[in-house]
Amino acid sequence: MHVLRRRRRGPLVLTSLGAVLLVASTGLTAAAKPQQADPLQQQVDAIHDTGAVGVLAEVTSPDTRNSARAGTAERGTGRPMPRNGRFRIGSAAKTFTATVVLQLVGEGRMSLEDTVGQWLPGVVRGNGNDGSRITVRQLLQHTSGIRDVLPEIPALNSADGYRAERFRTYTPEELVRLAIQQPPNFSPGAGWSYSNTNYILAAMIIHEVTGRSWAKEVNDRIIRPLGLRDTSTPGVFPFILGPHAHSYAAFGTRTRIDVTALNSSMAVGSGSIISTTHDLNRFYTALLGGRLLAPAQLDEMTTTKPAPELGVRYGLGLGEIPLSCGGSYFGHPGELLGYRTWGGVTRDGARTAVVYVTSDGGQGTQQAMSTLVDQELCRTRS
After folding, report:
1. Beta carbons of 222 and 292 less than 8 angstroms apart
2. pLDDT per residue as tens digits for the range 52-93
3. Catalytic residue among 91, 144, 265, 275
4. Which of 299, 368, 342 is nearest to 49 (CA)?
């Protein structure tokens, strides 16, 4: 039986959906006045029905924080999904990286029109790749043309590869070399193509500009100031500490295996962050609420152009997605080996919704996740 956590200007109250509740204002019990089904729980159940092992979602607005869960934290145990479980947020980490870059731009320490070659001379060169022609803006907007490195990572692409290399450490330089073994998809600025390599390079540039690692800058500029206590940059450490659900991947087969342990160094800057739905909601609220970026830099981040591969518009580390009720919201999907997340925030930062699942799911899982975010953001607008 699923349990909903709801807080409305008061302490948390745990309510079993099938329990008999006393209605204080009338003195009637739930048996006499049936409790209405919760829309968030219904949507979480719908995601679980697509084949996901576990699902958890949290929705926030200025006076409300709701969460719902379905499925299990570990197959074969019956353990429920942890209430504030930690998970690898995958590409949702790109918004963190873009935020740090834009902070440095706002401080006058670099420019979006700087080239990769200026900060990383000789790193992107060969097979038609030329860092002197690629700008920082093009990295963040995925218009550089550089190929994505993740198809070259065995641990992410087959069960055998995972078993053999899940603890392998990659350096950013090694990852870039793997990516530029192939010619670019197009000339810089001439197209749009999603590439994790772009954000690996952005992390390297952050290091060059500040003299400190990407992880230290993310921690000191975002995680600590916002009090994101369950968010971390694990580096090469392959395990998730604290409460968490296991993740599962099938690698295109019919057999799912446990892929919870992973050295995520192949995703530095592009996906190597562990967080929770609650912390991500707080991050999105602070970002769109203007607490992390000055207005000029936030405008740069939220100025979008068509991203045909995603079917939405894309800014600098942040997508713009239409709302079914009119207007749009900002967010970023994320996936890293069995953990999938979808999060969104209204333009004013007042309302957020984040959901994650702990497996590849099945046909319709991703659509059901985006539907949850859409409906919850539309619901809170009414």
Report:
1. yes
2. 999 999 999 998 999 999 999 999 999 999 999 999 999 999
3. 91
4. 368
Per the CB < 8 A criterion, the answer to whether 356 and 340 are in contact is yes
Give the SS3 label for residue 344.
strand
- Specify the pairing of strand 87-88 against strand 22-23: unpaired
Q: Which amino acid is at 51?
A: G
pLDDT band for position 310 (50/70/90)? confident
- Residue 56 parent element (H or E): strand 54-61
* DSSP string covering 126-152: ETTEEGGG-BHHHHHHT-S-PPPSGGG
Is 247 annotated as catalytic? no
CB within 8 Å of 142: residues ≥ 6 apart: 192, 193, 194, 195, 198, 307, 314
- Enter the tokens of residue 217: 């800058």
| pLDDT over 70 (residue 6) | no
Q: Is the dihedral of CA 127, 128, 133, 134 positive or negative?
A: negative
Q: 């600025």: which residue's tokens?
A: 189
